[in-house]
Design brief:
The chain has about 230 residues and is an alpha/beta fold. The protein has one domain (about 1-90, about 150-225): 3-Layer(aba) Sandwich (Rossmann fold). The chain is built from nine helices and ten strands. α7 (about 165-180) runs parallel beside α8 (about 190-195). The longest helix is centred in the C-terminal third of the chain and has 18 residues, at about 165-180. The protein is globular. It starts with a strand and ends with a helix.
């Protein structure tokens, strides 16, 4: 479904993502784990097209999107939930969700969105800026989902969110994957969340993928060593 091949990304002369390659199958969830500053967000921004790789390629369903703009990648089947959520604070919940439907012919919000995120149905007339951090995160995920993506990319979705809501988000992502057979790529520092949602875990350090494991074979102690400061 998604293939990243020998991707290198720079900020100026700083080499941030170094020769990263990985594949994700349809319906699979992978987590990119790592400490702050290791290249997680840069990697995801390069996949969605907010940053351009200096070399390497990004493929979706066999199509090379390396030269495509972000809006073309969304139209091709990528959905993106940015770090910090970036919802529209002065729009209502419903208006925020509708803002994600630019590439969709039918502008009716699918019922499954409210089934998976019932709090959004309760608060659909409330301004996005009046929601809690956890509720805003659910709104950001819903906004990305209504574009009907084949691959959903989430950048640190648990950042600044209380543990009980983190569990709710993990449950919602697992439900969405079953309902939609969607592929998910998530960058994360919370290992318990990654273990709840991911089939495979990668660790990025110094811009390189240095470790890969299936959830069943994960050495939790080893991953925690990578994540410790």
């Amino acid at each position: 479904m998604l293939s990243v091949k020998s991707l290198n990304v720079f900020y100026g002369e700083s080499h941030v993502v170094r020769d990263v390659s990985f594949d994700v199958e349809q319906g699979e969830t992978v987590a990119i784990m790592g400490r702050n500053g290791m290249g997680k967000s840069t990697l995801l921004k390069a996949i969605i097209g907010l940053l351009r790789g200096r070399s390497g390629s990004v493929w979706l369903t066999g199509r090379d999107l390396s030269a495509s703009e972000t809006f073309d990648r969304v139209a091709a089947g990528m959905g993106y939930v940015p770090q910090g959520r970036m919802i529209f604070p002065y729009l209502t919940v419903e208006e925020n969700i509708l803002a994600g439907m630019e590439t969709v012919a039918d502008k009716t919000i699918p019922q499954y969105i409210y089934d998976v995120f019932p709090v959004l149905k309760e608060m659909k007339a409330r301004k996005g800026g009046n929601l809690s951090g956890g509720q805003q995160q659910q709104l950001a995920i819903a906004r990305a989902l209504v574009s009907n993506p084949k691959v959903l990319i989430l950048d640190e979705p648990t950042e600044g969110i209380q543990p009980s809501i983190i569990k709710d988000i993990a449950k919602a992502l697992n439900e969405i994957r079953k309902l939609r057979e969607i592929t998910i790529v998530v960058s994360e520092q919370v290992l318990s969340f990654a273990m709840d949602v991911a089939d495979r875990l990668f660790v990025i350090e110094g811009g390189r993928l240095v470790h890969e494991t299936s959830r069943a074979d994960t050495d939790v102690g080893r991953i925690k060593q990578y994540l410790s400061v």
